[in-house]
Amino acid sequence: xxxxxxxxxxxxxxxxxxxxxxxxxxxxxxxxxxxxxxxxxxxxxxxxxxxxxxxxxxxxxxxxxxxxxxxxxxxxxxxxxxxxxxxxxxxxxxxxxxxxxxxxxxxxxxxxxxxxxxxxxxxxxxxxxxxxxxxxxxxxxxxxxxxxxxxxxxxxxxxxxxxxxxxxxxxxxxxxxxxxxxxxxxxxxxxxxxxxxxxxxxxxxxxxxxxxxxxxxxxxxxxxxxxxxxxxxxxxxxxxxxxxxxxxxxxxxxxxxxxxxxxxxxxxxxxxxxxxxxxxxxxxxxxxxxxxxxxxxxxxxxxxxxxxxxxxxxxxxxxxxxxxxxxxxxxxxxxxxxxxxxxxxxxxxxxxxxxxxxxxxxxxxxxxxxxxxxxxxxxxxxxxxxxxxxxxxxxxxxx
Length: 399
Ligand code: FAD
Ligand code: UDP
Prior knowledge:
Layout: E1 2-5, E2 18-21, H1 25-38, E3 42-46, E4 57-59, E5 65-67, E6 74-76, H2 79-86, E7 91-92, E8 98-102, E9 105-109, H3 113-120, H4 122-136, E10 140-142, H5 144-148, H6 153-175, H7 184-188, E11 192-194, E12 206-210, H8 214-222, E13 227-231, E14 239-241, E15 246-248, E16 251-252, E17 256-259, H9 263-266, E18 276-286, E19 296-299, E20 307-310, H10 311-315, E21 323-332, E22 343-344, H11 348-362, E23 367-369, H12 381-398
């Protein structure tokens, strides 16, 4: 692999069999697979000054490994994804735990057996727990909206408590809307857990942190003789979309183009901007060994930030006497201002707008869209890797 800043003088796209836009999971997985399976010469264009997309991590001034674009915890049920990524990293066992700060008491989220007893007291909490077990079964995940739909007055009491103290205010901060106003699948990501497992991703068989960090894993994935990475390059400056073809640097390009950025940006948002939420990540290094007991504490009833992450608690890094934490402030993304579009807003009119942009590229057979931005989907890392493996299977199959 080579990594260069900017495109070289006289960059010649026809020297490459594939051009990949974006060096996050979607781009890196596709680049590696096309280089390996097809022997393609691949140019990866990344507009940031680093690889790894939103999973990028680095050592801050205090020497602490931090995640620049928000806390990233690897977890998956997908064995193929796990096997693929495991080629490029060893894993450190890390089981993510989140506590909600509810009026000063820290309770596990997803809300579980322990949380019930903390919220309602030992005896009543146990009684309510047994009712949940009777209604849903042991070790079951129950979306809050499903729990709210139950008629039983005691279950309604639990549902009201959890809705009010875990979901309502946090969701207002995160999305600017109440849980009833947004896609139920979003709340479904953090169901009530009828059991004792106090991990954030209960039951996920593969969880962990890449041993040397995410950026190091990407470095290995992109480290291939046939892959050249160019950072600080905005592909919009050199890509032109036609009805059935794509031009690169003004020349028709016959190789594969894999695009992992936002589709509206590619067209100057001429049909309108796709809406997103963005997050202001505010880092602070404190002169203490440890700030909070777990990786992340969600502020579900107070504060104007959503959560605080303490990186050492996630990575296991030992740095005595100091620790770096990060607060997340969610807000509306302002298109065209150089901000990061973090979260898609899954509403029918937005999906329809996305579909209209997608239609414009669907006639260009060598142009492929993949990833959280390009597919306009609320994907976790494993979902993006799965999608990139599928797309590259297809391209490899047609090779
Ligand atoms: P990205 O990582 O966004 O990569 C796309 C790349 O393309 C970027 O580097 C971008 O700069 C580049 N690009 C875009 N347009 C252009 C252009 N015109 N020219 C050149 N380059 C361009 N997932 C989990 O599994 N666990 C978690 O704990 C987790 N936590 C998260 C926390 C936050 C706050 C956020 C926002 C996401 C989190 N995710 C998590 C999701 C995870 O970040 C994504 O699923 C994954 O990083 C998406 O990979 P991607 O390649 O699709 O996109
Ligand atoms: N959520 C909440 N309270 C919590 C945790 C999550 O209301 O303590 C809701 C909120 O709407 C959030 C969604 O559930 O956006 C999904 O949470 P998740 O932790 O999966 O979000 P991410 O890590 O992707 O930001």
